[in-house]
Design a protein that fits this description.
The complex is a heterodimer. The two termini of chain A are 36 Å apart. In chain A, 51% of the residues are buried. Chain A has 14 helices and 2 strands. Chain A is 73% helix and 1% strand. Chain B has one domain: Rossmann fold (3-Layer(aba) Sandwich), CATH 3.40.50.300. Chain B is built from 9 helices and 12 strands. Chain B has a 6-stranded mixed β-sheet, sandwiched between helices. In chain B, β7, α6 and β8 form a beta-alpha-beta unit. The chains are: A mainly alpha, B alpha/beta.
Chain lengths: 318, 273
């Protein structure tokens, strides 16, 4: 309900006022109807993008936290966002122009990047599996993030000036989406990921209590982990391809949701998807309006909210 | 009836459980030709020093590890032929310690035991809830139902985990050092509970433990393991002897029937050299 309401109301607010009646006034031709143009071309895609990105990152966060049995796990801390960024960056700066089954280059590269990062982090830790503490995995993720960010900066440095300007804003996490095709491109992988994750909530409950006891209760742990990790990478890849690595959504939304609905993943998964969408739409609304007519990258807003929350979480645990 | 037949096992290098010691045999095996039979309705104890292979054997009996050689049969069917779900309906595992990463309620934890009986998208129904409540009552934890699992004490947690195993409706329980991290009071509580479940529900149990007196109090039969091999297997009174304890643990002990406790008592002492 909240998500729907927020998505419907958010396009109405912005740096130039519009009148709802005129937006849907069919007597004025669309090309002459400035309000309708602002609504459908400038704002609606952006709000929808915010909803998709928020949903994808929040779901990925839920999955990582459950599988790693750790509240600090998220696409950001595991290097998955950084991997996705690098993939997308390369596709953008190399002007990659291909598509596979209707999904275009940027989301594909972004997904490949996120999956690649995940495989590296997981591979490293699997070398000392069973004994692998989550600490090792998170440490590997943080290291990988630093490494990949350096590569991203290198690519940026080598690119020409206008591209650098574009990609810098993109890396701040920006929902500057002004058309529908990128939305459609991200929707397909995100839908797939959502279906994958929707099949798993009880398994996530069981695994979050312990991999071994989950197996003893009839969970095929390895297959479930694989499905969950690929789905989470897919969701992260889709989100990052649209909006860049929007910080902190993947880590704080699952916690906020758990504070309200408890630990049961059958509630946490749908609630996090919806709340993540609403959260990012609102953050983007703030980003668009707080310094209007300047539109801030939404990543700045989420980090300003998310940073202190993350610190609070750390110290509360200690 | 659960039967292990000439089971051998070795961990791939670097893949063994962390923090665990394995004084493996010269051939690198953690378990070397282990055969044992667990008859229905009995409580069987697995005893042996640290690193002797008890936990590995429990994992293999539970179907969580596949033996390198040999096989495990449950009522004549090889474990390898059963799916994880089918196995979970027959056998439940109680680990040494359980820590939930998130704020699950006690009822949540017990309801998770119903997983192998439900479809992928199915929710627990009234019957599942009734079984969970019944399991809570049987373990004396009904009053904790809506408490958060992580706020319970060690002994209370262990009773809730056992309730989860009961909700799983399996007739065999595999317990890996179920009292190892508990103080004396909780140790007694768990021992009493296990005996009651064995008598009232005819639950078959295999439990590994370092506590020889717990084994003496609870077990119908005891299997003694040393460096991956079985060095004693039989009725508790036959296996728990001063000689065997000396040869396996290197400790002198008096083994006497204790009138008030109603079972054998092992009292280790410092030997005068």
């Amino acid at each position: 309900m909240l998500t729907l309401a927020v998505c419907m109301l958010a396009p109405l607010a912005g740096s130039s006022p519009i009148r709802l009646r005129q937006v849907f006034d069919s007597s004025i031709p669309f090309t002459d109807n400035v309000d309708a143009q602002i609504f459908f071309i400038a704002r609606l895609p952006r709000v929808l993008a915010a909803a998709l990105v928020g949903c994808g990152l929040a779901l990925a966060g839920v999955v990582f936290q459950a599988l790693l049995r750790n509240p600090l796990a998220s696409p950001d801390t595991l290097g998955v966002s950084a991997g996705a960024s690098l993939g997308a960056m390369l596709a953008i700066t190399l002007h990659a122009d291909f598509s596979i089954v209707g999904v275009s280059a940027v989301p594909l590269a972004s997904f490949a990047g996120s999956l690649g990062a995940l495989v590296i982090v997981y591979g490293l830790s699997a070398a000392r599996r069973r004994g692998t503490t989550t600490t090792v995995l998170l440490l590997a993720g943080v290291t990988l993030t630093a490494l990949l960010s350096a590569v991203v900066r290198f690519v940026q440095f080598m690119a020409d000036f206008t591209e650098t300007f574009q990609t810098t804003r993109w890396l701040m996490g920006s929902l500057d989406v002004a058309s529908y095709p990128p939305l459609a491109a991200a929707l397909a992988p995100l839908t797939l990921a959502t279906v994958g994750i929707a099949a798993l909530p009880r398994v996530l409950d069981l695994i979050s209590v312990g991999a071994e006891s989950a197996a003893a209760r009839g969970v095929n742990v390895e297959a479930s982990e694989r499905l969950a990790l690929v789905s989470a990478s897919l969701a992260t890849g889709a989100a990052v391809s649209l909006a860049g690595p929007v910080a902190f959504v993947g880590i704080i939304v699952p916690h906020m949701v758990r504070l309200v609905v408890g630990a049961d993943h059958r509630l946490v998964v749908p609630a996090a998807g919806l709340f993540g969408a609403a959260f990012l739409v609102v953050c983007d609304l703030v980003a668009r309006t707080v310094l209007a007519p300047v539109e801030l990258p939404v990543g700045i807003i989420t980090a300003i909210i998310g940073g202190p929350f993350f610190l609070w979480l750390l110290f509360r645990r200690a | 009836m659960l039967r292990a037949d000439k089971v051998s096992f070795a961990y791939e290098s670097g893949r063994r459980p962390s923090g665990r010691l394995h004084s493996e045999a010269a051939n690198g095996l953690v378990l070397d030709g282990v055969s044992l039979t667990v008859d229905s309705g009995l409580i069987v104890g697995l005893l042996g020093p640290n690193g002797s292979g008890k936990t590995t054997l429990i994992r293999i009996l539970a179907g969580l590890l596949t033996p390198l050689q040999g096989s495990v049969m449950l009522d004549g069917q090889p474990l390898a032929a059963l799916s994880r779900r089918q196995l979970a309906r027959r056998m439940a595992l109680v680990p040494q310690e359980t820590n939930a990463a998130f704020d699950f309620s006690v009822l949540d934890m017990v309801l998770m035991g119903r997983y192998p009986h439900l479809g992928t998208f199915a929710l627990e129904g009234a019957q599942d809830l009734a079984l969970a409540r019944d399991a809570l009552a049987a373990t004396g934890t009904a009053q904790f139902e809506s408490r958060l699992f992580k706020t319970l004490s060690g002994g209370e947690k262990q009773r809730v985990v056992i309730a989860g195993a009961l909700a799983q409706a399996a007739d065999m329980l595999l317990l890996d050092e179920p009292t190892a991290s508990l103080d004396l009071g909780y140790q007694m509580e768990i021992a009493t509970l296990l005996r009651k479940l064995n008598r009232e529900r005819r639950a078959t149990m295999v439990l590994s433990t370092h506590d020889l007196n717990l084994a003496a109090a609870l077990c119908d039969r005891v299997v003694l393991i040393q460096r991956g091999r079985i060095v004693g297997d039989g009725p508790t009174a036959d296996v728990l002897t001063a000689d065997r304890i000396l040869s396996v643990y290197g400790v002198h002990a008096d083994v006497q029937y204790h009138e008030r406790a109603g079972h054998l008592m092992v009292v280790p002492f410092d030997s005068p050299h």
